[in-house]
């Protein structure tokens, strides 16, 4: 990342939360091959899916994500940013059929770029963690000052190379990303608190 992510309207928790069983939340991930000017790789779609799966796993059964083939009806839409976007990621509020949703933009460096040529797993780790961070915003989570958190903001300083490097050291193969969620206990707690607050607001808390 050359700049910290930008996020808008992140205080709104767009996902439906049930008190007893998880509600389905639709998401859509842009296929990489749609626009030739994008630097993403076709397999980056899996990195985005794994990010949603990580948040679902951290929700203790209260969130359930369902992938949609229809971009227009998905509550959360993840798109790949242009090469010259200058951001790691950005989350923007949208309206979907009268409901609040979010559109996420993730800048993915080309696998043939400097990082990818040097260490493809590091490049994939950066893309995954960016997807995880931005989807956290779509869930209503705000930036933190804690370096250990996935919601940490580079605006507070810190060693950016180490931020990604510590996660990279957990990986021996790409599939290991699925086994390492990349979030801290504080991220987990913040998500559950956000769900609790939303449940109270909707009168669903038992």
What radius of gyration results from the CA coordinates? 16 Å
What is the H/E string? EEHEEEEHHHHH
Unreliable segments of 5+ consecutive residues? 6-21
Main sheet, how many strands, which sense, barrel?
6 strands, mixed
Kindly report the average pLDDT value: 85
Helix-strand category: alpha/beta
Enumerate how many helices there are, as a single number. Answer: 6
Oligomer: single chain
Helix content: 25-40%
- Rounded to the nearest angstrom, the distance between the terminal CA atoms is 42 Å
DSSP strand (E) fraction? 15-25%
Question: What can you tell me about this protein's structure?
Answer:
This protein is an alpha/beta fold and 206 residues long. The protein is built from six helices and six strands; from the N terminus they run ββαββββααααα. The protein has a six-stranded mixed beta sheet with strand order 1-5-6-4-2-3, with helices on one face. It is globular, with a radius of gyration of 16 Å.
Short overview:
The protein is of the alpha/beta class and 206 residues long. The protein contains six helices and six strands; from the N terminus they run ββαββββααααα.
Key attributes of the depicted protein:
single chain, 206 residues, alpha/beta, 6-stranded mixed sheet
Please give the structural blueprint:
Elements: E1 6-7, E2 23-29, H1 44-58, E3 63-67, E4 76-80, E5 89-96, E6 99-106, H2 114-118, H3 120-138, H4 160-168, H5 176-179, H6 185-201
Helix pairs in contact: 1-3, 3-4
